[in-house]
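Reviewers asked in the last cycle whether our approach scales beyond single polypeptides. To address this, we selected a multi-component target totalling 554 residues and predicted its structure end to end. The input consisted of the following lines:
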Amino acid sequence: MSSSLEKNMLILRSSDGEEFIVPEVVAVMSKAIKNMVEDECASNTIPVPNVDANILAMVIEFCKKHDESEAEAASDLKTFDSEFVNRGQEALYDLITAANFRDVKELLDALCQNVAEMIKGKSVHHIRIQFLGYQLFEILTSNFIWNIWCDRDFD
Amino acid sequence: MSSGGSIFDLPGHIISDILSRLPIKTIIHCRCVCRTWRSLVLDPHFANLHLSRTPTSLIIHQDSDRSPDWDSDILKLIEFDRDKHDQHGNGLLHYDPLMKFDLKRLCYKNGEILLVGSVNGLLCFCDYENEAIFICNPIMRECITLPKPIYTKRYPSTIVYGFGYSSLSGHYKVVQISQTPHSDPAEGLPSSYDSQGAVYVLGTANWRSIGTVPFLYSCRSYNLSLNGNIHWLNWDGETSELICSFDVHNESFQVFPSPPNNLIKQTLYVNLGLFRDCLCLCVTDGSEDSDIVIWVMKEYGVKESWTKEIVIRQNSSDLSCLLYDEVSLLHVWENGDILILWRDDRLYSYSPERKTLEEVEVPRDSSHIVAPFITYEMMLHVPSFLSLKDFKREKVDMF
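The resulting structure, written as structure tokens, was:
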């Protein structure tokens, strides 16, 4: 397969075995992949453990857009970013973990900013409810976990 | 397919990154969400990350000797709100009563507090009557009272302070300058002074003499800390430059490149300030066609880069009221309008484009009636979560 691959293309293989053919310039927006390519320890197929096909597709979509849009207006990219990161909490968690693990700075930045916007202006109670959701019930009923809370405290 | 992870499960450095993007008030709330978040926010790494992302605010020290207790010796943090605008596109001043700090518990009953300087969220103020210097971080509600300084204010000596930070050494330093005239000031302006300096490095718990200090300092004008230097106005007529500076790292005094002297005519009032991130001077001259000129040093340390950025002409409408006292620049809005403090009690917004001046109300607690005769000291301040407890050998009081 590698022989038929166009020049400057890489194959990324997700944790669940799906393969994505990606231009090298897009793939190296991940600093972890960039290091592998530079050290020449990567064959054409690069395994991306811990990231499943669903999330990897999203990460690639983000990087492609950022690679293409260098000439585009910054405001367009900003709109794309804010729409891209507008996802459910679980997808956000997986994306942040992937962006952190693969070291994709621009994506991690956009995601952290988005989570910050979700927290902005919220009370302690709301933050707990929002981010713990159904887990809250479990935690409230467990004496052990109760210890992780501390009371509202302004020193 | 999804791992079902929650934001709470993210690694600590990611949570720090997210929290560092939040407004101060939300961060204070976040400290109470759980123990992990609390310890993340109290970590010096978080304080530095947050500092690098936080826009400058305004700190107001409000005092009044004729108003009830709740209105005197109060610090208020005022944020420049970029999201809300008035009809001219100016941002607004945002004040949250949570950002109000009462200094009365810290200071002596008969004392009078004056601001010295603000660096990285740490505020230095002094009480000349009781010879006490304080360093406080209002956001952390922490305060240190420094040991008695070396020099004391005894007639006819005057005392000047400065507060600065060196990123080279990571040191915060308070500088004390004592100026004693060689002749009695009551018999005319003294021709020469004996000036001695002392330095206090935060975390060392003692003052250290630095010997003779050059130049002449006014005890009324503020110092300004920027790029590892503390700047003062230099009133020593013999030196060609109007500004002098103290290098916080190597503790040396120098003349600092200033606007061309012949362009600053008969100066009535001069004030150091910041125009966006550049050093600036607000000059009120005393000549007949007097103007208020804001000089900006576009490139730090380069004399040729001083530019006459804004000229407020006396003949434009009702600006003349500004001429009879000091003017200091506080903020430049995105549309170019500037926020200025006149004397020590009035805020104005001036538009260089429309050439209009409008009074701006100093934000106050809505429930309170405005007491008359309130005076203000105002200073740019970046609120931070730096803890004074990270300085060894200092006793930290909470207030």
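Residues 143-155 of chain A have pLDDT under 50 and may be disordered. We regard this as preliminary and will revisit it once experimental data from Aim 1 are available.
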